[in-house]
Amino acid sequence: MHYLTYVSLAIYFMVMLGIGLFAYKQSTSDVSGYILGGRKVSPQVTALSAGASDMSGWMLMGLPGAMFLVGFETIYIALGLLIGALVNYLVVAPKLRVYTEVADNSLTIPEFFAKRFHAPNSHVRIIAAVIIVIFFTLYTSAGLVAGGKLFVSAFDLSYELGLVVTLGVVVSYTLLGGFLAVSMTDFVQGCIMFVALVLVPVVAYQEFSSADKMMGFAYESIPHFSDAMQNVTMLGLISSLSWGLGYFGQPHIIVRFMAIRSVSDIKIARRIGMSWMTVTIIGALATGLVGIAYANKFDMKLVDPETIFIVFSELLFHPLISGFLLAAILAAIMSTISSQLLVSSSSLTEDIYRVLSKKESTDKEMVKMGRYGVAGVAVVASVLALDRSNSILSLVSNAWAGFGAAFGPLVLFSLYKKNLTHKAAVAGIVSGAVTVLFWIYAPVLADGKALTSLMYEMIPGFIVSSIVIWITSAFDADPCSKTVDTFHEANRVLIEQQ
Q1: Model pTM?
Q2: CATH code for the part of the protein at 3-392
Q3: Which ranges in 347-391 belong to alpha helices (H)?
Q4: Per-residue 3-state assignment (H helix, E strand, C coil) for 9-49
Q5: pLDDT band at 455; cut points 50, 70, 90
Q6: Greatest CA separation found in the chain?
């Protein structure tokens, strides 16, 4: 590896740590500042922060790898994500921004679920927090696996060293600066990812004299576009598109809507965020497609398809630019890990420690506990990530489905159903999470395989949770008048602010 590549990476690391120090001085004196940035985040930072924390290492490694292996069927996953993200901005973002503030300034998703029913220490808060910690630990391990693979493929260093370096930098600035540091670093990282996902496929395409030539080499390994579109099964199509359902229940994404400075800014954030997402997803798919053609043309053997972006970065660019492109992968990985660590830490401290300890703690003590939480989740996730055989896309898909099914229906019902009850909320979370876990791990099919081999677990989990919430609310006692009043108050404030 050329020394200029290491210079680029060193500059990137110093910028991230510098942002963490800046945020440390600006917004970590109280819990609201540490967890939500004081609800003063700009629409530009909100948009790119949501996008960068959403896409993570799977955008530059998992999605190109899926295109490399499967071909054009991967487009359906991308289409489902684009539709889901847009609906999330339109349906969830405005009401969640208002409702979480009206509901006694809720700082976390579990706290909002509880205060939605005027029961701040209720069961739904603890259960939701436990699910967040469990699934985010799994999700964080996916990011660390990506970091480890990067160091092996790009630097010929040990996988374990990659875990340590990735974890060390991201934990440092998350511990220091909290939500503001995470959001600001996400903004910078989102910009880096955008440039990289435009640059890499465009430069790689220059190796071919025409699009027809490139597609000719690609079709040596994957089905033609028309065949891929015709041969996809209905279950396969639904499973791929259903990735979009997950957006409604992803705490590390929807928490951005809670932190934006005003409802009117959401429209600006939506335009920026969707434009960014469209370009980067197309770039990721194009990287995988050009990678197939490149590998066939030059008879290149790729042991791990998820490293095609790394291979292009090393083969086609000047060492200084190569370092920038490798920093883009780290940016994607770290932006998601930092968001997940902060949300997990927030749930551990605000929704578990504060509730179970039953004592008044100062803001300084809670921020300190939050930092301990970040470190704790990071250590457990790093242990899980030691299994380098894990597929990044597989780990992400499991965690994505878990959150989408456990929280997605409840978020929608909480914002749009005034007679939702506490028992229905608890039943919805538990049934969604249990359904996903059963679908992934229970060997119920004749050949010992799990049901996930037939259909993506998001679909049954989301459906079961929605039905359980609806039926339980219908047969449960009516919610208290305060709950209904808060619902109407949130709608009134939303209309005024729009």
Answers
A1: 0.85
A2: 1.20.1730.10
A3: 354-357, 363-384
A4: HHHHHHHHHHHHHHHHHHHCCCHHHHHHHHHCECHHHHHHH
A5: confident
A6: 70
